[in-house]
Amino acid sequence: MQHLPGGSYAAAEPFLGSSTDEFLRAAWRAEGPLLVGADGDFLTVLTGLLEEHGATASTDEVYTAVWNAIETNRETAEVVRRVRAAGYGAHLGTNQARNRGAFMRTGLGYDDLFDVSCYSYDLGVAKPDPEFFRRCAERIGADPREILFVDDSARNVAAARSVGMTALHWSFDPAAEADHTGHDALVGELAAHGVHL
């Protein structure tokens, strides 16, 4: 659905230099509990980590460049619109802390793009925990067996299948390690599962 052009390392390196890898690993570890709704503000955590690693840029500057510089893939968004226009529900299931989730909902317009959005911080559990998929199905109001799940992670696909969902391992990046890549392949796979656009 989205990507960070160049990746996290390239986005963080101008601020962190040689400690970029160490900083990102520490930031992702600290973000972990927040992905499942733990109390706390990631920006406060990030401020401490930037000080610890000797960065001089502001927290807002680094957060915007590394966490909020994500871009929605236009072709993927168009497939979502086509799914909805064809009369199907299109829903989002994503692992995010509250700060980034809020940006995605309004800044990227996902509240308007999707029928139902399932953010891990709000559900209290994250992919690939099977409970994430059960809670998504409850929020959508459908039996898991009625849901076709699409994800670029093989672990998430396996977890969705474990609760009864049909799941596709797909990515818009041709270089990704996914069973299917590219939007033509996605549309074809959707049709093969009865979702005709």
UniProtKB/TrEMBL annotation:
It comes from the Bacteria. Pfam families: Hydrolase. SUPFAM superfamilies: HAD-like. PANTHER family: ALPHA-D-GLUCOSE 1-PHOSPHATE PHOSPHATASE, FLAVIN MONONUCLEOTIDE HYDROLASE 1, CHLOROPLATIC. This is Haloacid dehalogenase. It comes from Nocardioides luteus.
